[in-house]
Amino acid sequence: MPLLATLLKLAHIGAGIAMVAGLLGSRLLNRQAAVAGEIDVVLRLSRAAAPFDRMGEVAGPALIVTGFATAWADGYPWLGLTTGWILASVALVVLLLVLVARVFRPAGARVESAILAARAAGTVTPELQEAYAEAGVRRFATLYGDLVAPAIIALMILKPG
Amino acid sequence: MEPSNLVKLLHVGIAFAFISGLIGRWVLLRLAAAASDPETSNTLAHAAAPFERLVIRGGPAILLAGMATAWAQGYPWLGLTTGWMLLSVILLLSPLPLVPLVFLPRGRIFEAALADARRQGVMTLELRAAFADPAVAFARRWELTAVAIVVVLMVTKPF
Fold first, then answer.
1. pLDDT digits (tens, 9 = 90+) for A116-140
2. What's the distance, Cα to Cα, between the start and end of chain A in Å?
3. Domain residue spans in chain A?
4. Interface contact B10, partner A, CB < 8 A
5. Burial of B159 (0-12, 13-18, 19+ CB in 10 A)
6. Is B13 within 8 Å of chain A by CB?
7. Per-residue pLDDT reduced to its tens digit, B76-91
8. pTM above 0.80?
9. Which of B9, B20, B40 is opposite residue A154, by nearest beta carbon?
10. pLDDT-based confidence at residue A40 (cuts at 50, 70, 90)
11. Where are the domains of chain B?
12. Is any Cβ of chain A less than 8 angstroms from the Cβ of B19?
């Protein structure tokens, strides 16, 4: 395997690992925060989720860029976009980035403001619990966030068409 | 779809979970070490538990799935006669002695220091020292380094 293609593939896998770790870390910590009974614990766990959120946000675009570069180095035409499984993988990551911008960030801002209000009140408020509750589009987005990484990994390994 | 690819998918999926566990634990313990009060340290250290479980369960699972993948792909002796696979297995097993030699004894010292710091309500010197323990830091760095080398071996299959 030529050196450049190997290095690009390793960078792509590294970005993939960072994205999975970011998604998983954020999910696990926010889930713990949502069920915590003390506002101080909620605050600590939500702050601890921030590095994982940043990891996921940086890794997403890096995953796409290194993916295109890897496809180019491996000789796929049109950066791989004429290959079904690569196109599907790109679409899945792009939709995730859209959901981050349109659903997760606004929801995070609502949770943040509810945390600050609850901290001032000194207790976990119903508003905070409501802000953490997942319904409608957010429930879909969360489910999508849980399933997208396994789906992309499956496409990368199985290369179905 | 080849059955061997399904086993490989399982192997890769476990690997992602395992490495995510290592990264998640590392991030949370660093945040816990940098905390300014013992309650925050305690919350973050305990929040690392799900990541720890991923590491503990993922380690053996990754080896079993890797050998199953080697068998499904037709490598003789579960891949153990192939240089890069043998080296990967050795590297993945290499942190095992660190559990009784470093993680368990130092973990007990850490738990005692954390409990004492919580009683006193301040980050004690003992707790700071437990977080900065060079043996634990070396062990954690080695775990991450070994896994990083294994990922490179899996991609490059050099020998």
1. 999 999 999 999 999 988 788 888 9
2. 23
3. 3-158
4. no
5. exposed
6. yes
7. 988 888 999 999 999 9
8. yes
9. B9
10. very high
11. 3-156
12. yes
